[in-house]
Amino acid sequence: MIMEADAPLRETGADDDLVRLKVTVNGRRHEGEASKKLTILENIEKMQLPIRSSCRRGRCGSCRVRVLSGALRDNGVRLNGYVLSCSSYLEGDGDILLPY
Ligand code: FES
């Protein structure tokens, strides 16, 4: 019998910045952990998925992704569910579609 006291200790707040991120690219669905401290672009790159980017400053639009679900904090324009991933951050679990 495993008692609760035997469970490994976890530092309080250590995982508070982690959320679940689902990404669909080329019709394939991927899922992993993402950090609220990184942009959506950085998180998708960290998952080693092929996301387009250029300026990384919210100007060119090449990093545009569609948000299927999820709370975001973004500095860019959100139009028809699309955001600029280089200037958008997750606030909770997210589901993202790359439009190519
Ligand atoms: S990489 Fe240019 S707007 Fe995001």
Automatic annotation (TrEMBL):
<dbReference type="InterPro" id="IPR006058">
    <property type="entry name" value="2Fe2S_fd_BS"/>
</dbReference>
<dbReference type="InterPro" id="IPR012675">
    <property type="entry name" value="Beta-grasp_dom_sf"/>
</dbReference>
<feature type="domain" description="2Fe-2S ferredoxin-type">
    <location>
        <begin position="19"/>
        <end position="100"/>
    </location>
</feature>
<dbReference type="InterPro" id="IPR001041">
    <property type="entry name" value="2Fe-2S_ferredoxin-type"/>
</dbReference>
<protein>
    <submittedName>
        <fullName>2Fe-2S iron-sulfur cluster-binding protein</fullName>
    </submittedName>
</protein>
<dbReference type="Pfam" id="PF00111">
    <property type="entry name" value="Fer2"/>
</dbReference>
<dbReference type="InterPro" id="IPR036010">
    <property type="entry name" value="2Fe-2S_ferredoxin-like_sf"/>
</dbReference>
